[in-house]
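As the next step, I selected for study one protein, both as residues and as discrete backbone shape codes, as given directly below:
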Amino acid sequence: MALLVTDQGEIDSLRTLLNATHEIPRNLVLKLYTGPSTAPTEQDVPSATKYFEPYNATNTTGYGSAPNTGYHEIINNRTEEDQDFSGQYGILLNGNRWTIATTASAVATGIQVTGTSGNYGVTVNDASNIKKGDYANGNANIPANTYVVDIDGTNVELSQKLTGNSSAVATDFGRGRTTASYPEQVFTFLSAAGDVYGYYLSRAHNMPVTLHGVADGLSIATVGTAIEKDECKGVIGQQYIELKDAKTTATAISSGAQNSYEIEVASTTGIEKGQIVEATNVPAQTRVVGVAGTTVYIDKAITGGNASGNLQCVIDLTKDVTIGQKVTKTSGQSGPDAFPADTVVTGIDLATRSGEQGPRIYLNNQLTDNIGTASSNAKVDFSHAVATSDPSGSAVSHKLNVGDVIYIANGSSGGITAQHYTVHTVPSSSTFTTTPSLQTASAGTKDGTAYSSIFFAEKFTNGPYSIQNSGDQIKVTLNVSLD
């Protein structure tokens, strides 16, 4: 049975999705689309025939080159390095400008409900303004705090059984609906742009027009060398393995004044931003915020005296491990192979648990033997595929950053899972990995097409709006409701 999301839970969920707390580096972007002509469905994904933006006036995809319609290069762009999305098109939204609240009164009133006592299912005369999660009020045959579980046409399933027969009984729906609203936004065109059917919200990124939406713009292949982790442990029957905690080589501290945030060391080899620092008079859970030359900058002030002795940092063993990577025994070891075929990572504990040797990696399969007990099979490989941005066979800079969310569709060769992906690592300007990890269904290089994500979508009620002249405008007022 699905969990009920409380009103406050819905508010917090929308705050996160819309970045109302500015905890996510990327806000959402408001985009227009010139297809499909039908209302959006929950199964919709971007493609060469759906949710392409008005780059031209032909109502066909224009991805691959810049728009010639005056469709806006990003409006409201920021200048900070991690907020600069100048390569994208649409209007960048500010998460703080969303107004999020739960309605205290009904939205759809006087709906005629018919149903039989003891049943969860009812029929209504009009379900167009009823949403999942709406509370039903004003009908004596419907128990208090009953909400809509599912909607199929004019058939509505409720969370509680009717206590009496209802025959076209007027009922109100919509109390408790949590909605986020955003001030009106305006698109002004400079030339004809065809028919615009609606709009959608996408997570911001800076993928260039030379890659965005270009068919087979990505080449996806499993890397030749997997990520190897040594001194792993696992017990037969468990669905997880443990990595072994590791630290950087101890380096002598030459200076680190009390109350300061800087430590001078003999060598910063292996020290990286985000690592936990261990040294005398450095508070617990202090992290590296930067490294310059032989200076280590930390996020907590040195206390109790000057930093002294040696400094070591705890290495983040999980930063290159992610959901979906395949897990196998490293070849060349004499011990048993404890991993069934197609074992993949399903979860990661970033920190060490008490009494364990290091971070825990969860798996989709149970181990068929022990790992690491005799050090004969303690090495484990984590494999994944790497995407290379090379439309037309020529590598281009993808301009994606760790944390960017995009949709990757199957290309002409097939062989990957089409879905939203988050950029996990960026080995080079033309390559990236994802979480969930990209995997190819068979050997060889597969093609993929990269699009903006679709988080929310809406068709214009009175559309489509035909953009024919310079100065034509489309005005959008956003309302997002959880169902």
About this structure: The domain at 104-176 is CATH 2.40.30 (Elongation Factor Tu (Ef-tu); domain 3). The longest helix spans residues 7-17. The chain has a mean pLDDT of 92.
